[in-house]
Amino acid sequence: MRLAMIGAGSIGAWVAGALARDGIAPEAVILRGAGPAGLHVVRSVADLPPGITHLVDCAGHSGLAAHGPLALAAGIDVISLSLGALADAGLAAELADAARAGGARLHLASGAIGGLDALRAAAAGAWTPCATPGASRRWAGPDRPPRRCWTWPA
Fold first, then answer.
1. Which of 28, 95, 113, 141 is the most exposed place for a label (fewest CB within 10 A)?
2. Do 87 and 143 fall into the same domain?
């Protein structure tokens, strides 16, 4: 796997750090401006080093819209944290068409939307809504009764 990224802000820095812990470093980062020292900064998908197989989008909706279709059409798989961008039906169709044309895949990572991960964890852990406003969340385990709460402060 040869990896590049879009964006080097707080999410991009966190992703790069997590990849580094696994011994993976992005070969290039697509940015609009200057980047931190040590990054191979490029401006577009066309400027990426040859052989990039995956592009991780950490730049938000505009980053995915600007670079996702071009990467997918070039046969580069895109991993995006910008799930909300797919609410734009035109962009979703453009990404799907580009992926088909390039034989690539758009992978959707739910990490930037904590609610999706929380719902997934809740489903696995038997969390349910409770009727007590402001109650703390409790885990229903083998030694606890099934009085579980899922409440959020107003």
1. 141
2. no
